[in-house]
Protein 1
Amino acid sequence: MVTSDSKQQVRPPVSRRRSLLTATFVAFFVGCLYSMWDIGVNPLTFWTERQDLFNLLDRMWAPRIDEPRLVWEAALDTFLMAFAGTALGVFLAVPIAFLSANNVVKNRFVRGAARAFIVVTRALPELILALIFVRVYSIGVLPGVLALGLHSIGMLGKLFSDSIEQIDTGPREGVVASGAGRLQEITTGILPQVIPSFIAISLYRLDINFRASTLLGLVGAGGIGLQIRAHQGSLDYQQLLGVTLVIIVLIAIVEIISSRVRAVILGHDDGPKKKSVLATLGLGHTVEAEDFRPADGASAELPFDREALRPPWNRDRIVMWIFGSSCLAMLILAFTVPDLSFIEMIQGFPQIPEIFNNLIPRNMDWWEDRWGELLVETIQMGFAATGLSLVFAIPTAMLAARNVAPARWVYNAARSFILGVRALPDLIVAVIFVAALGLGPQPGVLALAIGLYGFSTKLFADSIEEIKEGPRDGVRATGASGLQETFTSVLPQAMPAIIGHSLYVLDVSLRASTVLGIVGAGGIGFPLVQGTRLFQFELVGGLLICIFVLVYAIEILSAWVRKQVI
Amino acid sequence: MTDVEGAIRPTPNHADLPPVVEVEGLVKTFDNGRVRALDDVTFSVPEGQLCVIIGLSGSGKSTLLRHLNGLHEPTAGSVTVLGGRVDQLKGAKLRALRTEVGFVFQQFNIVGRVSCLENVLSGALGRLRGPRFGVLSYPKRFREEALAQLERVGLGDRAFQRTDTLSGGQQQRVAIARMLMQKPKIVLADEPVASLDPEISGQVMDLLFRACIEDQITVVCSLHQVDLAMGWASRLIGLQDGKIVLDSPVDDDLTQERVMDVYRRLDPEGRKISEYGTSVTDLS
């Protein structure tokens, strides 16, 4: 049956799409390698610089906290700042998300404007926003809350609007068919479907904002970061380590709690599926006897026991109520305990447009050639940190994925290790590395790589756990070895996720590189901070526009690549 | 399909040839003994036989087949395939045995995202050392061989198409090509056509059995459809609640009624209920 045709080629045909993709990958790898070489870091740097790092660790040992009360108050302030910032972000992001969802708003102009706002807030680093707000409100928690809130809109708005667009149209049509109005359509047809994911996303953001809020003090926005800055300034490394350890423990606790609650809300894969949060809370209109009154005015009687009209107090409902009331309590705390006042906040509002107006450069006087060099250095730092983290992340992810890990204990060890690494805020690691290795991009890249390593390993491991088991059986049944099975059936399935996440890591890395300069770790961050301190607003604005263009370009590129590799 | 049936039906008597599969007292329980999937199953399959296992869903067909290449470990009993004790072999030796035993799955179990050719190539992994990623990581000789196998199942023109863009029947043909690429001595097929429509089912079964007869491969196949089983098999084994209730060569003595008996189920009081539960016959 084998025809002479079978002499046909046995290599994949070359297509335009394929060659473009290959070119992009080559550019990515070359970019990472060149940047690592130019900055002078490589996977062995941790080893070659071990002497300096050990010396520093020696000076840091033993960690101590001289004023536990002060640290405790600062930690509480930090958490409440993160909470208030997240609440503000959610409050602003929900309407914007609805405006930008293509199944809610049909007007392309309105949708486009909402999308643009989301992209802009995402590209403005929260540290820079905090710096700007410190100008308006002076040092304290308030600038931190505003910075977190505004920056959160970027991610929250994007993810909220994605989940609105992914809803099942059936229930919505059902609600419309029953004669509901436009707003009822949204509250009954859409909201119940998206609320679980809204809460899960907000919790995830709280987790991220808490990490960020520990650093905001570095630029004067209150919280525990102020202590880090003070100890860094006075070279009191033992206290620096003490406070850092407190931060790590707190971040790990917040992450564990938030991921547990998210699991309850989103429902476990095998358990009963998502349930309306409103229904679980027992909220909404309660059926009354009136609703059953016959039209002819006969006496109204409920056709069933009144108790049956209320949701029962089962475990889920109790958990949801506890969660709901603690959220409310914390919100009240957040606006009372720290030195945060609504009046002050509102009084400051008129100044905000003026400040943002000052940021717009009128001419190119702010430009100096060294900004160009620093921008290139920033991009290199982003690529180098991405490359460095991916080299370590992909093998670790194999050990941390339940279905690929060689043994249960390996999986548990790898997961705990990642959780620990993820709790290290990269700027604090940068502070420590700068102290050990001196100023410059090298310590910044190493610190950033550690942060990205924890972050990307988790993403990779999670997506490897999502692959289908069938094809693995298929390959195993041919007599393939474990390694062959992984390469032939696991990797091809996980590839789109791995590529997508790698691009996301690059995006996060570039944005983080822009602020590393704040602690003296190279890149564009240093003039950015100096500019804000010296009121050179046009310079700050100009540099922010450069960063925005950079981040936006990466976003367009990664959207294109993701579409090609699905 | 009708014209080939009689033409390639092999002579049913293989009993004089040496057995390639021997199962002795096989027991398999799940959930710490709460579920008894296989209950003292004993049979052997001589070389070249086309043996079909029938039975209801949950009667243990898949579990039995998965024991024959070591995807499951038995609770008790022994499984010998091609002279090797599958239940005792581990690691490299088990993998070496698996390369001789092809498996066709109900859900195809191919990698949807990669090309058909790459899926077929993965059948050669047992003959190669080290991990492979991408079509070009396989030697040219193997690529030509894989293409020839794809042409054998009639999909030579789809070599570089993504496998998940094919229809169900075509995907199963890719899986068959992968199995053939393995050059197995035995093929285990677990309900290979259960997720396909009747017409495509006939075509795929035709292809699978023809290829196995051409390459002189022994087949142990589980099937849902009695008519397909009677048409192709040289021997039928019926499973009910993990026990063998029928084991017979397919000849004139094997009436439709005896076969359909396998599809009756027992209710807890020992009465026989027909599959659709309408008539209840008291056995006691």
Protein 2
Amino acid sequence: MGEPKPNLYSESFPIEGGNFNSAGIVSTGIKSILKKLGIPGDIVRKAAIVSYEAEINVVSYAKKAVVNLTVVPGAVCIEVIDEGQGIPNIDLAMQEGYSTADQKIREMGFGAGMGLCNIRNYSDDFHIESEVGKGTHLKMTIQTP
Amino acid sequence: MKLSEVKDILDAEIIVGEDCLDLEVHTAFGADLMSDVLAFAKAGSLLLTGLTNTQVIRTANVLDIAAIILVRGKKPSSETIALASELKIPILTTKYILFETAGRLYMKGIVGCLSKVENTSGRT
């Protein structure tokens, strides 16, 4: 793994579960922070997409969450740690098209079983851990030049 | 093509972004599923959709979408308009259905931001 890298930036953002109107505020914020840091546009977009899909998951399924944004030389890391129902079967949840979404989520244009796949596809490194009844922990890393 | 030309082709009404009509666009993506938009749409494209909630604006912002074209005569809520104004994302609305909207733009040279998906595994 080599020596620990110095943080160029780090900030934590809370997300409130169930608040559909607020979904996207954190990723919009992350996007503008990364832009200001001079991160290339395509990396900023990937980071915004993964954090946005994660936010949608939090408002849809969790009570609350914290998003940790960390920028180190060579990478943008986004961690989303929620308190909520958790995921009983991660393999199934990672299958494109598998969804437990209700009508409210679908009306917003989500809930088609693509969120976690999008998150994985836009991340260079993706980790997911979940405990039923406790919550889910996502960790996404996007490499920067 | 300039956004003003898109507006004319679609006989559209501009709801947000009166000052953005000089914006140049070349590509578009159309869907009502925002996860598909997030998966496939490219920066600088038009987003054609029938959804009008604030998540459409958030999605457009995340992807650096040039402008949103609401189809089937959909009108956004005041909340959606406020967010689009804040994030400086133009919204146009056209009475044409999604198919017609896409076809009319395609005939005039706007192309999809991709034409086929690479992998359809697991898609239903």
